[in-house]
Predict the structure.
Amino acid sequence: MITLGIESSCDETGLALYQMGRGLLSHALHTQIAMHSEYGGVVPELASRDHVLRITPLIRKVLHDANITFDRINAIAYTQGPGLGGALLVGASVANSLAYALGVPTIGIHHLEGHLLSPLLSDPAPDFPFVALLVSGGHTQLMRVDGVGRYELLGETVDDAAGEAFDKSAKLLGLSYPGGAALSTLATTGRPGMYKLPRPMLHSGNLDFSFSGLKTAVLTLVRQSELNEQTRADIAYATQEAIIDVLANKARAALAQTGLTQLVVAGGVGANQILRERLTHDIEKRGGRVFYPDLEFCTDNGAMIAFAGALRLAEREGLKNYRFNVKPRWNLQEITLT
Ligand code: KG4
Ligand code: ZN
């Protein structure tokens, strides 16, 4: 059973082939970051047009790399939401028209479910149940995951996502979009203790987050400081510390609250090396274990969609009516099995 996965929810066109029992056969990605960085953020219309250009060559590439032909594809999984409407429509329409031509079923996948399950692609992989810290450009959530489709929201951001906090702070420091990784690189030359930034909701007593105040504090700091290479690095250091401190504390509290011992970190911010070190240190010290997707599967990719599609198809039939819609706003709770 071979599933083709298509991810096109934002600024990455990701394709992959996953075979049940064998694993990932191939995957390919085109990132639009360079195109959007000129504008300081994702331009939805440009994103859609670029997906249109990239998607067919990437389908051919994953087939070529896996050394198989179109007729070996048994099902097509695509990101149905959440994300940019136009960008999602490109993936959904290609998935459904190709599936129609091949006579195979399609399945729409929730983007965050893809992120949540992506650590299972790595070795070692966690067992169910686990707590997932989902930290991407658009989301910051702590979820309890008891199985495929069994997700319980434990806490989430009330305003900006952690990735957004990285990106907005990076922009204030003159770094180009998306900025999270660049801010992290700049922070390597920053000095500890030079600036103290707020840790919003650290002691809120629940598992929710808030990052918009941090962005304002960084803005004030940037305005008040004499900016040079060293002070920029110092501010980057303090910003990263503040974000990571909150994420690590809440993740630890989520394990304590649920009584679970395994933490899975997913989403683009999960690529942050300092976050990884801090979580591993804090949680292993308490007898827990932290799992990360491989770096290339932390940010958006087709592999997580092919994989989530394959797992879902093992449980239920895909659709063969080739009618489709996309869900730019889609709550993960809606796909939770009861
Ligand atoms: O999961 P993702 O690729 O896309 C969304 O679904 O949003 O996450 C992208 C986010 C961006 O905010 C980016 O700045 C952030 O992940 N990011 C990082 C790092 N690499 C990517 N943030 C901090 N440190 C990194 N190394
Ligand atoms: Zn994502």
Strands lie at 2-7, 12-19, 23-31, 75-81, 106-110, 130-135, 140-147, 150-156, 262-266, 289-291. Residues 229-258 form the longest helix (30 residues). Residues 221 and 235 are 8 Å apart (CA to CA). The mean pLDDT is 95.
